[in-house]
Amino acid sequence: MSGATEAANSEDTKVPFWKNQIFRLALLGLGIGVGLGALFLAIRPLFGPTEWHGMEIQSNLPVTNFTLTGLDEQPVSLVDFRDKVVMLYFGYTFCPDVCPATMVELRDAMEALGNRAEDVQVIMITVDPERDTPEILQAYLAHFDESFIGLTGTPEDLIAVTAPMGIFFERHEGSEASGYLIDHTATVAVLDKEGKLRLIYPFGVTGEEMAADLKYLVRE
Amino acid sequence: MAATVTKAGTPYKSSGMLIWRLFFGLFGLMAAGVIWFSTARPITVLPRITLAPGFYLSDQNGERFTSEDLRGQIVLYNFTYTNCTDPCVATSQVMAEVQSRLLTVDASVPLKLVTFSIDPDRDDAAQMAAYSTELGADGSVWHWATGGAKQLKSVIGGGFGVFYDVREDGRFKLDPAFFLVDGSGVIRAEYRTEEPDIDIIMRDFGLLAAEVDHSEGIYRFAYEAAHLFSCYPR
Fold this sequence. Notes:
The complex is a heterodimer.
Chain A: H1 2-13, H2 21-47, E1 55-56, E2 67-69, E3 75-77, E4 85-91, H3 98-113, E5 120-126, H4 134-142, E6 149-151, H5 155-162, E7 169-172, E8 181-184, E9 188-191, E10 197-201, H6 207-217
Parallel strand pairs in A: 4-5, 5-6
Antiparallel strand pairs in A: 1-10, 2-3, 4-9, 7-8, 9-10
Chain B: H1 2-8, H2 10-40, E1 50-51, E2 56-59, E3 64-66, E4 74-80, H3 88-101, E5 111-117, H4 125-134, E6 142-146, H5 149-159, E7 164-166, E8 172-174, E9 178-181, E10 186-191, H6 198-213, H7 218-228
Parallel strand pairs in B: 4-5, 5-6
Antiparallel strand pairs in B: 1-10, 2-3, 2-6, 4-9, 7-8, 9-10
């Protein structure tokens, strides 16, 4: 009698696996896990990018201020842009390749930012003060974006500005047509609204990638 | 009757409870994972402090020597001048000791030492070469360099933030300091003392070398997470 009852009970407990309590719990857990993951991915952009497109710097101090010469011989200081995200580039207008390519990417970044571009200031500091007057610089930059600012200074001033920013430059002879050329570090430095160095873009980062990072920095 | 209650009532109640338990359980697991990662620090990194300065100088062979020449290499910098007595003797001994231990670091990128002379008037290439030879410097690993006084001030004072000044008797007042710079030209550690713990310097060389070795693929995300959670050495 007892054996027959156990056999009957055993038959009762043989339910399909999809009705099994443990299977259902596992499925539920998986569903919640996927849901949480999707929620995390959905709200993640609110807190910051999943990955910066440049090298992130964890500096607590603002970049040391400097003052150079802008259009109409006006002194322009880094602190003048404290409420903007500043993109610093060091190049020169006779630069045949790297500089115009970088300026195009910076222009694309500004375009991709749309209205938020007004919170970003692109500044190009020349490494060729002999040829790049403020007027020549401004005319050159206007080809890319009217809002870009060009700065120059004495060779001593420029060394004092470039060295701490990790910029090296060296003059060497070019062809008869190009005149002398200047080898220089081709990075773009990004400073936040407090003047702290936040990102370094090596040459090759696209304007679209820069804009993806900048949209977080302008919001801070 | 009892069976009806069980089938019709209890399962609904327990399923609702279960969903919340699972939700909080998974959330708790994620939070615990983050806390564990940031406290147990399974991966340790050095902070990206700031940019190391760019420079264009000349070395102990009289050849041009620039910051770009050191791209992709892990470099320990210090500052001295060959007529220096104190504290440069001690700092040069530290550099010599580090040089002798560099081969113990498992690295896929070159590890270098660079000493800047702050006394360009007296330390020409020949003088730096003779002095570095005295210290047992291997010219392929340990570079010596100097340049114009103004440029040096911009690089050492402005870039590295190291104070030095010449005294009336020709000697220099110099704050002893060492800086470890990664292959991207970013300062990753600084040791502002005359005699830093060489074991710590070697450990830091190892941390940077390991980060380079894990800079691609899935490991890269783990290392970036270590930066995000400030998993720095204690």
